[in-house]
Structure prediction request, 343 residues.
Amino acid sequence: MENEFVLFWVKRCAQLQSVQLMRGNATTALPQLRQSLLSWYDQNRRDLPWRKTRDAYRVWVSEIMLQQTRVAAVLPRYENFLERFSSVEKLAKAREASVLAEWSGLGYYRRARNLHAAARVVARAGAFPQNAEAWRELPGIGRYTAAAVSSIASNEPVAVLDGNVERVLLRLHGKLGTSAQRWRAAQKLLDHTRPGDFNQSMMELGAMVCVPGQPICSQCPIQRFCQTRGRGISISRKPRQQKREIAYCLAQSNGSVRLVRRPKSATLMPSMWELPHCAKTSDSDTVLFSIRHSITNTDYTVRVIQRGSPLRTPGLWVKAARAEQLPLTGLARKILCKAGIIL
Prediction:
Protein backbone atom coordinates (compact mmCIF):
# COMPACT_ATOMS: atom_id res chain seq x y z
CA MET A 1 0.00 0.00 0.00
CA GLU A 2 2.82 2.41 0.86
CA ASN A 3 4.58 1.73 -2.46
CA GLU A 4 1.35 2.37 -4.36
CA PHE A 5 0.91 5.68 -2.51
CA VAL A 6 4.46 6.80 -3.39
CA LEU A 7 3.96 5.79 -7.03
CA PHE A 8 0.70 7.74 -7.16
CA TRP A 9 2.38 10.94 -5.95
CA VAL A 10 5.32 10.56 -8.32
CA LYS A 11 2.90 10.36 -11.24
CA ARG A 12 0.77 13.18 -9.84
CA CYS A 13 3.76 15.51 -9.50
CA ALA A 14 4.79 14.80 -13.10
CA GLN A 15 1.25 15.59 -14.26
CA LEU A 16 1.17 18.84 -12.30
CA GLN A 17 4.51 19.89 -13.76
CA SER A 18 3.16 19.21 -17.27
CA VAL A 19 -0.01 21.17 -16.60
CA GLN A 20 1.99 24.05 -15.15
CA LEU A 21 4.20 24.13 -18.25
CA MET A 22 1.32 24.04 -20.71
CA ARG A 23 -0.59 26.78 -18.90
CA GLY A 24 2.39 29.05 -19.29
CA ASN A 25 2.95 29.61 -15.56
CA ALA A 26 6.21 27.73 -15.29
CA THR A 27 9.03 30.20 -15.89
CA THR A 28 11.51 27.45 -15.04
CA ALA A 29 9.94 24.53 -16.90
CA LEU A 30 10.05 26.06 -20.38
CA PRO A 31 13.80 26.78 -20.30
CA GLN A 32 14.36 23.27 -18.96
CA LEU A 33 12.33 21.72 -21.75
CA ARG A 34 14.16 23.73 -24.39
CA GLN A 35 17.57 22.90 -22.97
CA SER A 36 16.72 19.19 -22.64
CA LEU A 37 15.54 19.00 -26.23
CA LEU A 38 18.47 20.96 -27.68
CA SER A 39 21.00 18.87 -25.73
CA TRP A 40 19.39 15.70 -27.05
CA TYR A 41 19.44 17.10 -30.59
CA ASP A 42 23.11 18.08 -30.36
CA GLN A 43 24.02 14.52 -29.39
CA ASN A 44 21.57 12.46 -31.45
CA ARG A 45 20.68 14.31 -34.64
CA ARG A 46 21.13 12.51 -37.90
CA ASP A 47 24.16 13.48 -40.00
CA LEU A 48 22.37 15.15 -42.93
CA PRO A 49 24.17 17.39 -45.46
CA TRP A 50 21.72 20.30 -45.19
CA ARG A 51 22.40 20.51 -41.46
CA LYS A 52 26.03 21.40 -42.12
CA THR A 53 25.23 24.80 -43.60
CA ARG A 54 23.40 28.03 -42.89
CA ASP A 55 23.56 29.05 -46.54
CA ALA A 56 20.09 30.26 -47.51
CA TYR A 57 20.20 28.69 -50.98
CA ARG A 58 21.18 25.23 -49.75
CA VAL A 59 18.75 25.30 -46.84
CA TRP A 60 15.96 26.40 -49.17
CA VAL A 61 16.66 23.65 -51.72
CA SER A 62 16.63 21.01 -48.96
CA GLU A 63 13.32 22.22 -47.55
CA ILE A 64 11.64 22.15 -50.95
CA MET A 65 12.99 18.66 -51.65
CA LEU A 66 11.85 17.35 -48.27
CA GLN A 67 8.24 18.40 -48.80
CA GLN A 68 6.19 15.17 -48.89
CA THR A 69 9.36 13.18 -49.61
CA ARG A 70 11.35 10.78 -47.44
CA VAL A 71 14.84 11.76 -46.32
CA ALA A 72 16.29 8.61 -47.91
CA ALA A 73 14.96 9.66 -51.32
CA VAL A 74 16.27 13.22 -50.98
CA LEU A 75 19.83 12.40 -49.91
CA PRO A 76 21.28 11.35 -53.30
CA ARG A 77 19.32 13.96 -55.26
CA TYR A 78 20.29 16.89 -53.00
CA GLU A 79 24.02 16.66 -53.62
CA ASN A 80 23.55 16.05 -57.35
CA PHE A 81 21.21 19.01 -57.69
CA LEU A 82 23.63 21.37 -55.94
CA GLU A 83 26.52 20.10 -58.03
CA ARG A 84 24.54 20.89 -61.19
CA PHE A 85 23.11 24.19 -59.89
CA SER A 86 25.66 25.40 -57.36
CA SER A 87 24.12 28.84 -56.87
CA VAL A 88 20.76 30.54 -57.16
CA GLU A 89 22.10 32.43 -60.18
CA LYS A 90 22.94 29.19 -62.02
CA LEU A 91 19.55 27.76 -61.18
CA ALA A 92 17.85 30.92 -62.43
CA LYS A 93 19.69 30.76 -65.77
CA ALA A 94 18.97 27.06 -66.35
CA ARG A 95 16.31 25.76 -68.70
CA GLU A 96 13.24 24.34 -66.99
CA ALA A 97 13.80 21.00 -68.74
CA SER A 98 17.27 20.77 -67.18
CA VAL A 99 15.87 21.50 -63.71
CA LEU A 100 13.16 18.87 -64.13
CA ALA A 101 15.71 16.33 -65.36
CA GLU A 102 17.82 16.83 -62.25
CA TRP A 103 14.68 16.63 -60.09
CA SER A 104 13.62 13.34 -61.70
CA GLY A 105 12.91 10.69 -59.10
CA LEU A 106 11.72 13.07 -56.40
CA GLY A 107 8.18 13.47 -57.72
CA TYR A 108 5.80 16.40 -57.15
CA TYR A 109 7.43 18.24 -60.03
CA ARG A 110 5.52 21.42 -59.41
CA ARG A 111 7.97 21.99 -56.55
CA ALA A 112 10.85 22.06 -59.05
CA ARG A 113 9.01 24.48 -61.31
CA ASN A 114 8.24 26.80 -58.40
CA LEU A 115 11.83 26.57 -57.14
CA HIS A 116 13.07 27.53 -60.59
CA ALA A 117 10.63 30.45 -60.84
CA ALA A 118 11.53 31.65 -57.34
CA ALA A 119 15.25 31.46 -58.16
CA ARG A 120 14.69 33.87 -61.01
CA VAL A 121 12.95 36.30 -58.66
CA VAL A 122 15.81 36.10 -56.15
CA ALA A 123 18.47 36.44 -58.87
CA ARG A 124 16.79 39.58 -60.21
CA ALA A 125 16.54 41.04 -56.70
CA GLY A 126 20.21 40.30 -56.05
CA ALA A 127 19.58 39.06 -52.50
CA PHE A 128 17.68 36.43 -50.54
CA PRO A 129 14.69 37.36 -48.37
CA GLN A 130 15.71 38.27 -44.83
CA ASN A 131 12.62 37.15 -42.93
CA ALA A 132 9.83 34.58 -43.16
CA GLU A 133 7.27 37.11 -44.36
CA ALA A 134 9.46 38.01 -47.33
CA TRP A 135 10.16 34.34 -48.14
CA ARG A 136 6.42 33.75 -48.45
CA GLU A 137 6.31 36.18 -51.36
CA LEU A 138 8.22 33.68 -53.51
CA PRO A 139 6.45 31.04 -55.65
CA GLY A 140 5.89 27.71 -53.91
CA ILE A 141 6.77 28.85 -50.39
CA GLY A 142 4.17 28.58 -47.66
CA ARG A 143 4.21 29.37 -43.98
CA TYR A 144 6.12 26.26 -42.88
CA THR A 145 8.88 26.50 -45.51
CA ALA A 146 9.33 30.24 -44.96
CA ALA A 147 9.71 29.75 -41.21
CA ALA A 148 12.08 26.80 -41.61
CA VAL A 149 14.42 28.55 -44.05
CA SER A 150 14.41 31.89 -42.21
CA SER A 151 14.97 30.37 -38.76
CA ILE A 152 17.85 28.19 -39.96
CA ALA A 153 19.54 30.58 -42.40
CA SER A 154 18.81 33.92 -40.70
CA ASN A 155 18.27 32.84 -37.08
CA GLU A 156 14.83 34.46 -37.10
CA PRO A 157 12.82 33.40 -34.01
CA VAL A 158 9.84 31.99 -35.88
CA ALA A 159 8.45 28.50 -35.22
CA VAL A 160 7.59 25.78 -37.72
CA LEU A 161 4.59 23.49 -37.73
CA ASP A 162 4.69 20.34 -39.83
CA GLY A 163 3.29 16.87 -39.19
CA ASN A 164 6.12 15.86 -36.87
CA VAL A 165 6.00 19.05 -34.80
CA GLU A 166 2.23 18.90 -34.62
CA ARG A 167 2.37 15.36 -33.24
CA VAL A 168 4.88 16.36 -30.55
CA LEU A 169 2.78 19.35 -29.52
CA LEU A 170 -0.41 17.31 -29.47
CA ARG A 171 1.13 14.78 -27.13
CA LEU A 172 2.75 17.43 -24.96
CA HIS A 173 -0.54 19.31 -24.52
CA GLY A 174 -3.05 16.50 -24.72
CA LYS A 175 -5.12 18.67 -27.07
CA LEU A 176 -4.47 21.74 -29.20
CA GLY A 177 -7.61 22.92 -30.95
CA THR A 178 -7.46 25.03 -34.10
CA SER A 179 -4.59 25.43 -36.54
CA ALA A 180 -4.02 28.98 -35.27
CA GLN A 181 -3.74 27.67 -31.70
CA ARG A 182 -1.19 25.08 -32.80
CA TRP A 183 0.96 27.70 -34.48
CA ARG A 184 0.81 29.82 -31.32
CA ALA A 185 1.75 26.82 -29.18
CA ALA A 186 4.78 26.13 -31.41
CA GLN A 187 5.84 29.78 -31.22
CA LYS A 188 5.49 29.84 -27.44
CA LEU A 189 7.68 26.76 -27.09
CA LEU A 190 10.40 28.08 -29.42
CA ASP A 191 13.90 28.76 -28.11
CA HIS A 192 14.74 32.27 -29.33
CA THR A 193 18.50 31.89 -28.90
CA ARG A 194 18.72 28.90 -31.28
CA PRO A 195 15.47 28.99 -33.28
CA GLY A 196 16.76 27.07 -36.29
CA ASP A 197 18.21 24.27 -34.19
CA PHE A 198 15.13 24.15 -31.97
CA ASN A 199 12.81 23.84 -34.98
CA GLN A 200 14.95 21.03 -36.33
CA SER A 201 15.06 19.35 -32.92
CA MET A 202 11.24 19.32 -32.76
CA MET A 203 11.05 17.80 -36.25
CA GLU A 204 13.77 15.28 -35.41
CA LEU A 205 11.99 14.26 -32.22
CA GLY A 206 8.77 13.68 -34.14
CA ALA A 207 10.54 11.73 -36.87
CA MET A 208 12.71 9.52 -34.66
CA VAL A 209 11.09 9.22 -31.19
CA CYS A 210 7.60 10.72 -30.98
CA VAL A 211 6.52 8.66 -33.96
CA PRO A 212 2.97 7.82 -35.08
CA GLY A 213 1.34 4.87 -33.38
CA GLN A 214 3.64 3.81 -30.56
CA PRO A 215 6.12 6.55 -29.56
CA ILE A 216 9.44 5.53 -28.01
CA CYS A 217 8.81 7.39 -24.77
CA SER A 218 11.75 5.78 -22.96
CA GLN A 219 14.11 7.66 -25.32
CA CYS A 220 12.28 11.00 -25.21
CA PRO A 221 14.35 13.84 -23.70
CA ILE A 222 11.22 15.80 -22.71
CA GLN A 223 9.12 12.91 -21.42
CA ARG A 224 8.73 14.49 -17.97
CA PHE A 225 7.03 17.50 -19.52
CA CYS A 226 4.55 15.42 -21.54
CA GLN A 227 0.93 15.20 -20.46
CA THR A 228 0.10 12.04 -22.38
CA ARG A 229 3.32 10.00 -22.62
CA GLY A 230 1.95 8.93 -26.00
CA ARG A 231 -1.18 7.33 -24.57
CA GLY A 232 -4.79 8.05 -25.36
CA ILE A 233 -4.11 10.40 -28.27
CA SER A 234 -5.64 9.71 -31.66
CA ILE A 235 -3.15 10.71 -34.34
CA SER A 236 -4.62 10.97 -37.82
CA ARG A 237 -3.33 8.17 -39.99
CA LYS A 238 -2.60 8.11 -43.68
CA PRO A 239 -5.37 6.63 -45.83
CA ARG A 240 -4.99 2.95 -46.63
CA GLN A 241 -2.84 2.36 -49.68
CA GLN A 242 -4.67 1.23 -52.80
CA LYS A 243 -3.13 -1.41 -55.05
CA ARG A 244 -3.08 -1.32 -58.84
CA GLU A 245 -1.36 -3.16 -61.69
CA ILE A 246 -0.12 -1.32 -64.78
CA ALA A 247 2.17 -2.15 -67.70
CA TYR A 248 4.68 -0.18 -69.76
CA CYS A 249 6.42 -1.07 -73.02
CA LEU A 250 10.19 -1.14 -73.23
CA ALA A 251 11.37 -1.05 -76.85
CA GLN A 252 15.07 -0.69 -77.78
CA SER A 253 16.88 -0.41 -81.10
CA ASN A 254 20.47 0.54 -81.98
CA GLY A 255 21.20 2.18 -78.63
CA SER A 256 17.89 4.05 -78.53
CA VAL A 257 14.77 3.59 -76.44
CA ARG A 258 11.17 4.40 -77.26
CA LEU A 259 9.75 7.27 -75.12
CA VAL A 260 6.65 9.44 -75.13
CA ARG A 261 6.24 12.95 -73.78
CA ARG A 262 3.27 13.89 -71.61
CA PRO A 263 1.21 16.83 -72.92
CA LYS A 264 1.91 20.32 -71.59
CA SER A 265 -1.74 20.43 -70.57
CA ALA A 266 -1.50 17.26 -68.45
CA THR A 267 -2.66 17.67 -64.85
CA LEU A 268 0.16 15.47 -63.56
CA MET A 269 3.79 15.79 -64.62
CA PRO A 270 3.21 17.95 -67.75
CA SER A 271 5.94 17.76 -70.42
CA MET A 272 7.71 14.91 -68.62
CA TRP A 273 9.01 11.89 -70.57
CA GLU A 274 7.95 8.31 -69.85
CA LEU A 275 7.71 4.87 -71.42
CA PRO A 276 4.67 4.09 -73.57
CA HIS A 277 1.77 2.72 -71.58
CA CYS A 278 0.58 -0.78 -72.48
CA ALA A 279 -3.19 -0.71 -72.32
CA LYS A 280 -3.36 -4.21 -73.83
CA THR A 281 -0.88 -7.04 -74.20
CA SER A 282 -0.69 -9.94 -76.66
CA ASP A 283 0.85 -13.42 -76.79
CA SER A 284 3.85 -12.03 -78.65
CA ASP A 285 4.71 -9.71 -75.75
CA THR A 286 7.28 -10.76 -73.15
CA VAL A 287 7.30 -9.63 -69.52
CA LEU A 288 10.90 -8.51 -68.88
CA PHE A 289 10.50 -7.75 -65.18
CA SER A 290 8.17 -6.23 -62.61
CA ILE A 291 8.82 -3.44 -60.13
CA ARG A 292 6.91 -1.73 -57.34
CA HIS A 293 6.17 1.98 -57.39
CA SER A 294 4.17 4.19 -55.04
CA ILE A 295 2.48 7.51 -55.80
CA THR A 296 0.67 9.23 -52.91
CA ASN A 297 -1.78 6.59 -51.61
CA THR A 298 -1.46 4.05 -54.44
CA ASP A 299 0.99 1.13 -54.65
CA TYR A 300 1.58 0.02 -58.22
CA THR A 301 2.85 -3.31 -59.47
CA VAL A 302 4.44 -2.34 -62.77
CA ARG A 303 5.03 -4.95 -65.47
CA VAL A 304 7.60 -3.99 -68.07
CA ILE A 305 6.74 -5.50 -71.45
CA GLN A 306 8.96 -6.19 -74.45
CA ARG A 307 6.90 -5.82 -77.61
CA GLY A 308 7.18 -8.52 -80.27
CA SER A 309 7.11 -5.72 -82.82
CA PRO A 310 8.59 -2.38 -81.63
CA LEU A 311 6.82 -0.66 -84.51
CA ARG A 312 3.56 -1.18 -82.61
CA THR A 313 4.95 0.92 -79.75
CA PRO A 314 4.03 4.62 -79.80
CA GLY A 315 6.54 7.38 -79.14
CA LEU A 316 9.92 8.56 -80.41
CA TRP A 317 13.33 6.92 -80.54
CA VAL A 318 15.67 8.60 -78.05
CA LYS A 319 19.37 7.81 -77.67
CA ALA A 320 20.10 6.30 -74.25
CA ALA A 321 22.74 8.96 -73.54
CA ARG A 322 20.19 11.71 -74.20
CA ALA A 323 17.43 9.95 -72.26
CA GLU A 324 19.37 10.38 -69.04
CA GLN A 325 19.34 14.16 -69.53
CA LEU A 326 15.59 14.37 -70.16
CA PRO A 327 13.02 15.25 -67.49
CA LEU A 328 11.90 11.66 -66.93
CA THR A 329 9.09 10.70 -64.61
CA GLY A 330 10.27 8.90 -61.49
CA LEU A 331 8.78 5.63 -62.71
CA ALA A 332 10.42 5.93 -66.14
CA ARG A 333 13.80 6.57 -64.52
CA LYS A 334 13.31 3.58 -62.23
CA ILE A 335 12.47 1.28 -65.17
CA LEU A 336 15.36 2.48 -67.33
CA CYS A 337 17.79 2.06 -64.44
CA LYS A 338 16.51 -1.44 -63.76
CA ALA A 339 16.96 -2.29 -67.46
CA GLY A 340 20.53 -0.94 -67.40
CA ILE A 341 19.79 1.69 -70.02
CA ILE A 342 20.70 4.63 -67.77
CA LEU A 343 22.59 4.84 -64.50
